[in-house]
Amino acid sequence: MATYAGRVDRDRIEAESKWEDRDLPATMNQFLKRTRDAFPDRDAFSYQLTSGPTDPKETLSWSELYARTCQTANLFRSLGIGETDVVAFILPNATETALTLLGGSIAGIVNPINPLLEPTQISAILRETEAKVVVTLKAFPKTDVGQKVAEAVAGAPNVTHVLEVDLLHYLTGLKKLIVPLIRPKNPVSHSATILDFEAERKKQNTTLDFADSEGDRVAFYFHTGGTTGMPKVAQHKYSGVVYNGWLGKTLLFDEKDVLICPLPLFHVFASHVVLMSVIASGSHVVFPTPQGYRGDGVFDNFWKLIERYKVTFMITVPTAISALMQRPVDADISTMQIAFSGSSPLPVELYKRFENTCGLTIVEGYGLTECTCLVSINPPHGEKKIGSIGLPFPHTEISIRSVANGKECAPDEIGEICVSNPGVFEGNTYTEAAKNVDLFYENKFLRTGDLGRVDPDGYLWITGRAKDLIIRGGHNIDPAEIEEALAGHEDVAFAGAIGQPDAHSGELPCVYVELVAGATASKDDLMDYAKKHIHERAAHPKYLEIMDELPKTAVGKIFKPDLRKSAITRIYNAALSDAGLDAEVVSVIEDKKRGLVAQIKAQDSVDQAKLSATLGDFTRPWENA
pLDDT-based confidence at 229, cuts 50/70/90? Predict the structure, then answer.
């Protein structure tokens, strides 16, 4: 495992060479080939469909991974994919998912898409990226991915071919015989040609049939997480991806390390931070189950999987840590050295509980899709400031800018976090030109939309999202203040604070809470606790709701648009009822220009003028359904 102790090492690394002068691969093919040549017979990639510690697994060496990646790239070229053409995939984790990610970026531009999105969203992304080839699942029990994609492709006439991945070949015994009998039907309503991914891949040569790219280019389209609205599509170059991998090799991993990563490969955390670091270092990565941490039995078997693979480095997120802390450590995890947590800030109490239980250090990092990912890290072997997201990586500059006027903030002053590093595609971050307007300061620093501060020691602290600010009568309230306070309660697993509509103040703070298993705290208990521990009176929540589980993205971030939709529905329906109007909110939709829009169904007898007057007091738009 590489050693990185923070500022001294960062300064030393930066002094060694300018980024542009480093001897680094220029393309994904060169990147993979270097590692294949260095470690041909070492284990590179392992996958198992089910979570049991003795269940069947598939492991590829670096030679095998490179050969299959070349076959995949050749397959895409045979279907008309050139360097500027797009291969999209809507897949859970599997070996084929990694092959598509890597092979698609060699043949053309690869566009991973979250399988949890709705067909309309998937279709919109396919049209935006003009994808020609789509790789997805063949219909399989307990998943509707294939069916959703068939519907999405029907709305994307640019798609010419659909390649289906059949998970059946991962099964053994009785299950392999039963699945074909119970496999759901997948009605097709599009005109794209459907082919079997594995059958077509195996027809291809194991070396490239075409000339590799001559140098750096856009090779990845990643849609944003969508925690604040409809996804946008960010463009990533080879150089940005190599930078992320180089950081992993330089600061964290070497060829002797084994990483376990139950996170989705359609997200930059798993693909760019983990997989590219594995490629750069020649280490071994394990992906358990199609759904990762969400897979059946993964949390129950997690420590046993660490023992099985002799894992040295676990990749995790706060929601997963919370779930793991509700289970005993029931296996030998002595090979483990460090846990790396990302996606959102880790509550201090959860941090302490994990380290005390497992005897492991947690390293927190920060990144975002628009930067190809990595931005900062709490040094694994240096000073860690719990609650911070550490020091900027080598060759990364951070600028904190005033939300009001864009001026540089003083140390410890909260503003918008802006980033410049080799992962930032200056000027052309998004595929939609309009999304790039006012996205940079000085044509260099990308505006992240995250709020934070840099302390006098240079450590970065994230305090929330600019779009998440609760604006109560012109007063800005950081939702993190509410969330962190409630996270200190022993019964609280997670808290998500938002601004609910208010006719007088514009917004009022409200919070949704998920309890730990077996917790007994009531709504009143938590409201009393919040009032005692939230020091700013204006930030005291006016509404608190306990949910069985907070809505989350695939990498564990609380999905606040769903919370906002719930609040809009609740507040608007109460206003309509109080006004004596026979009308209700039937849905809240996302509109690219207007944001969240409440759709109202009213009886014919309802006075439309009174309806407009009732809902006109709120800032959120509405329309008749």
Answer: very low
